[in-house]
Amino acid sequence: MAWPKLWWMVGGIAVLAASGVGGSLWMRNHKPSQAGPTDPYRTYTATGQVMHLKALRAGGCAVQIKLHQWVSLSDGFTLAEMPQRGQLYTIGATPEQCLALEVALASAGEREDPESPRHIYYQAGQWQGGEWRMLGNPSAPRGCGGL
Questions:
Q1: Measured distance CA(50)–CA(112) in Å, rounded
Q2: Which of 122, 142, 116, 146 is CA-nearest to residue 134?
Q3: Pairing of strands 61-73, 119-126
Q4: Is the pLDDT confidence value at 62 over 70?
């Protein structure tokens, strides 16, 4: 009676091992289809004031930022498209970036106090479709003095 159960277990292990090896070979040789570019076509790094934070149903959040000052710009910006001080920008963020944003805001002041500084240092990228997304985790700016 024990032998048939043992053969089923050995057979099951063999099938799992074979499919794992076959699956890893397929994954290595199969390239997923590219629906669009995976990298942004332009980026900027800046400091800004978080005006609004909205959780998204699909995960992550949308962050409305009032730009204070850009620190660096990639190629691809025309003069008219350069981020402008005082303008509002909406940037998508992943759940991890939203959590980092919460931490940065908490270290900058009380969230419940609308007068407390809510400034961050961040990098954003724009994809061909026009969508802006946060690149990396935002942080509280350092040494900004009167921000």
A1: 13
A2: 122
A3: unpaired
A4: yes
pLDDT average, residue stretch 25-50: 67
SS (H, E, C) the chain: CHHHHHHHHHHHHHHHHHHHHHHHHHHHHCCCCCCCCCCCCEEEEEEEEEEEEEECCCCCEEEEEEEEEEEEECCCCCHHHCCCCCCEEEEEECHHHHHHHHHHHHHHCCCCCCCCCCEEEEEEEECCCCCEEECCCCECCCCCCCC
The half-sphere exposure of 142 on its side-chain side, counting CA atoms within 13 A, is 2
Band of pLDDT at residue 116, cut at 50, 70 and 90: low
Strand partners, 62: 54, 92
pLDDT number for residue 93: 96
Q: What pTM, to 2 d.p., does this model score?
A: 0.67
Share of the chain above pLDDT 90, in %: 50
Per DSSP, what are the bridge partners of residue 56?
none
Residue 16 reports pLDDT greater than 50:
no
DSSP state of 100: H
Q: Please report where in the chains the tokens 């499919």 appear, as a residue.
A: 19
**For residue 131, what are the CA distances in angstroms to 28, 68, 93, 126?**
31, 20, 11, 6
